[in-house]
Amino acid sequence: xxxxxxxxxxxxxxxxxxxxxxxxxxxxxxxxxxxxxxxxxxxxxxxxxxxxxxxxxxxxxxxxxxxxxxxxxxxxxxxxxxxxxxxxxxxxxxxxxxxxxxxxx
Length: 105
Known about the structure:
Distance between the termini: 103 Å
Radius of gyration: 33 Å
Shape: elongated
Number of strands: 0
Helix content: over 70%
Largest sheet: none
């Protein structure tokens, strides 16, 4: 009985066994979480056939976007300041419209 009590209070039982249990349990836990990750990835990889057809119909190419940019006038633009966090966006927009109206008159 004395030997058992001495063994139980030893460093091996105090630190070693809990460490090994933690490592082995962590390994099994990580395996389960990794499996969940891969299962979710498989589910999200599947696309609804109706959505797939809709994506095929909506063909936007790099060339078509480039043509849109060519048509727009990029040399004549004006930098417009957005509202600050503490400002009301509607009042700032109203002030900008007034300034633009006065500038054009």
